Structures are given as structure tokens and as C-alpha cells.
Amino acid sequence: MAVATRAKRRAGEGAEFTAREVKDGRNHAARKPLGTVEPAKTAKRVTTVNIPAIDIREVDLELVGTTALIMHKQSAKAEKAIADKQGQKASAGKEARDPKAEFEAAKHLMPDGKTPGFPARAFKAAAVRAATDVGLKMVDMRRAFHVIGDLIPIKADEAIMRTDWVTIGRGIADLRYRPEYRNWSCILPIRYNACVISPEQIVNLFNHAGFGVGIGEDRPCGKSSSGIHGMFRVG
Fold first, then answer.
1. The CATH number of the domain where 230 resides is what?
2. What pLDDT score does 9 carry?
3. Domain enclosing residue 154, as ranges
């Protein structure tokens, strides 16, 4: 017998279904009660990020040494000894030391083989390390500027051979013969992001680096030193 009437699922629900829907067992829960008002959809908020164009500039910074600079370049002989050890090659045994040769080998020299130089990365490392003295993050300063080049030419008096006691390995004492340069100065070519740092801030940062960090051996803030050499100021 055909059913023409409409049946209510439950009294008071306000939802009506046809008898055929009840008989077929359809999912009535998916149907919304009559008169239900859907909430208005919230519009998506679009955030605009303004990224300024990068502004790369260059500046030359003169540094003047306030204490003597001590160099200690890794010699070709020492590099070969390390390579042989890693390659498990037999050692030829210790040779008689030549202080003069060690002194010459410890110099950083420009391509002309005469002019002293110093690694550009050492100057940047000093400035980056000094960033913590003024409340800046080292990782931010690494991106803010770069010292251009490999070796920076150094103007200085003739090198003096130093003889220093050092401790190596497990407390073993040894002698080192290294060059010391007095009255030194140099020009640092710096490339920087003007959106991040200004020339005035670069000057101040290198003044902090020259006083508290330094470069070379026996510097104020080395891995295993707290000396007074390799200090500088902006000229």
C-alpha cells in the first residue's frame, strides 16, 4: 500500500522525512533540520610581506695594529706529515729541526713571495666573534658582511723571529719559531648588506674585535690563548 503521508522520525526534532526514505533506511543524520541557519563563512585573511631589494655596497676599512702580529702558517711539511699519517704511510722519523726554515715557513706571503699577508677569513671571524660583546648574534653577522679576498696584504716592519715555549698534545712542551710583525696595518675590502648593517656599525664592530678578539697567535680570544698580540683599531 502506497504511503502518501510524511512520517516524523522523532517528535520535537523538527526534521521531516518521507515514508520512502524511512523504508529505504537512508542516513537521515546527514539531513539538516528545517529552518537551520548556517553560520557565515569567515573570509580568509591575507598577509602581505614586503621584502626590500637587497642593497650590496663596498667599503675599505683601514686597520692599524696596536700590538705586534704573530703569524703561524701551517707549513707544507706539517701538512704532508698529517696526510701521511691519515694515509697510514710509514713515518721517516724525526729530522733535525731548522729554526730559520720554520720561521720562514710560518709566514703568510702574498703571491709575490715577499709581501706579508694574512687570511681574510681571520678578520671576519674576529668581527663575528665580537658581535656577542654588543648583544648581536654571530649567525646574523656572518650574513651581514664579507671580507673580500683570500690574503690581505700587511704593511709592517721587517719580521722578527720569535722563540716561544708551547704546550702540545698531552702537556708536552715544545719550541716554536714564528715571525712577529710590529707597526703593522692593512686595508680590508668589505662587501656588506646595507639593509642589515651600516658603515658606522661595521667600524664599531671591528673596533670591538680589535680590542677583545684580535688575530694571529697569542691573541686575546683564541681557542687556547688569552694573550695581547694581534690587537688592532680602525684607522
1. 3.30.70
2. 44
3. 56-76+108-162+180-234
Which of these, 216, 174, 192, lies nearest to 65 by C-alpha position? Answer: 216
Residue 60 and residue 9 share a domain: no
Q: Rounded to two decimals, what is the model's pTM?
A: 0.73
Judge whether 18 and 34 are in contact, CB under 8 Å. Answer: no
Residues 17-43, mean pLDDT to the nearest whole number: 57
Distance CA 144, CA 138 (A): 10
Q: Which of 114, 105, 118 is nearest to 78 (CA)?
A: 105
User: pLDDT confidence of 154, banded at 50, 70, 90?
Assistant: very high
Asked if residue 228 and residue 117 are part of one domain, the reply reads yes
Q: Is 156 in contact with 185 (CB distance < 8 Å)?
A: yes
132 belongs to a structural domain? yes
Residue 170: per-residue pLDDT: 76
| pLDDT tens-digit map of 69-94 | 999 998 666 555 555 566 667 566 67
Whether residue 7 is found in the same domain as residue 69: no
Half-sphere exposure of residue 1: CA atoms within 13 angstroms, side-chain side: 2
**Any domain includes 88:** no
| Beta bridge mates, 104 | none
Q: Which three cell numbers stand for residue 138?
A: 654571530
